[in-house]
Design goal:
Elements (H helix, E strand, L loop, with lengths): L4 H11 L4 H8 L3 H9 L6 H11 L3 H16 L8 H4 L2 E5 L3 H14 L4 E5 L2 H10 L2 E7 L1 E2 L2 E2 H11 L4 E6 L5 H5 L5 E4 L4 H8 L3 H17 L1 H23 L4 E2 H19 L16 E2 L1
Parallel strand pairs: 1-2, 1-3, 3-6, 6-7
Antiparallel strand pairs: 4-5, 8-9
Helix pairs in contact: 1-5, 2-3, 7-11, 8-9, 12-13, 12-14, 13-14
Length: 288
């Protein structure tokens, strides 16, 4: 009788006297990811199996063989693309500080409960993973020793232009450099589930449409292009400020944020979008 991957993993982990959480911290994944491996509802890919072998002090071929047998036993009746562990969106986080990575992975799991989340301290390992897996979303620290998160973003997008990249940093000054690399978003540390959810609502196609509108207006109506650029940068600045703030937002700031967003949208929709403001609230009021 074949011993499946889930059984071997559980046995090896217990022999090393590791809890699921302790193994998850060594692997830079969430505890629930390890739990799914041990229940057999998910299988790690080859890169993760290699890392598991190192953490558990075992031969990689043993784990690869067991994973192959489990996959065959569970999914042979269906097409490979129907396997549950292959359907989950792949999300990665790259940060060279282990402490931040260990603390941030549970935050991502809270914000993205349906995703397969994997952490890396080395950009080279993240690239290796991205070559073997279609990464849907990547959270990248900007400063990582010799390798910049900006450069890593460019390499990830070269592998898969559909990857959405969100930068993580403690310094808002990096935001303008970040946008020039094709990233979809920007978050200030420390990371919170609320900030992640808010950032993902900032639609990449809106940013693309805004940039293209400005591009065409530069030739057609330079003065209007200048105004739209100002509205767009105001919108981005207000987004970053709101995500970084822990205080209530003054109504005047929220109104300016809304006006900037709608001004950019009106360039695309023209007469199809009519906006009327009725705002008797005092500017000093604060929104929760």
């Amino acid at each position: 009788m074949n011993i499946l991957f889930a059984e071997i993993l559980k046995k090896l982990r217990r022999e090393r006297e590791l809890s699921q959480r302790e193994l998850a911290e060594q692997m830079y994944v969430t505890r629930s990811t390890v739990a799914r491996w041990e229940t057999g509802s998910r299988l790690p890919d080859a890169a993760m199996i290699s890392r598991l072998a190192g953490c558990l002090g075992t031969d990689i071929t043993t784990l690869l063989s067991a994973a192959a047998k489990q996959s065959e036993a569970q999914y042979a009746p269906a097409q490979a693309q129907d396997a549950p562990f292959l359907r989950r969106a792949q999300v990665i986080m790259v940060d060279d500080r282990k402490i931040f990575l260990s603390g941030a992975l549970p935050v991502l799991e809270d914000a993205l409960p349906g995703a397969a989340i994997t952490g890396f301290t080395k950009p080279s390992e993240a690239l290796e993973f991205a070559r073997a897996n279609p990464v849907a979303l990547a959270f990248l620290d900007i400063e990582m020793g010799k390798t910049s998160g900006l450069d890593l973003c460019r390499e990830l997008l070269a592998l898969n232009p559909c990857t959405n990249v969100v930068y993580l940093t403690a310094y808002i000054e990096y935001s303008f450099d970040a946008w020039s690399t094709g990233a979809s978003g920007f978050l200030l540390k420390p990371l919170t589930a609320e900030a992640v959810r808010a950032q993902l609502k900032m639609r990449p196609h809106f940013i693309y449409n805004a940039m293209m509108s400005i591009y065409y207006l530069c030739a057609k109506d330079p003065e209007k292009a200048q105004q739209v650029t100002l509205d767009f940068t105001t919108y981005l600045r207000k987004n970053f400020t709101a995500l970084a703030s822990v205080d209530s937002i003054p109504f005047a700031d929220e109104l300016e944020h809304t006006r900037a967003y709608l001004a950019v949208e009106q360039v695309q929709f023209e007469d199809r979008l009519f906006v009327e403001y009725d705002t008797p609230t005092r500017n000093s009021a604060c929104l929760p």
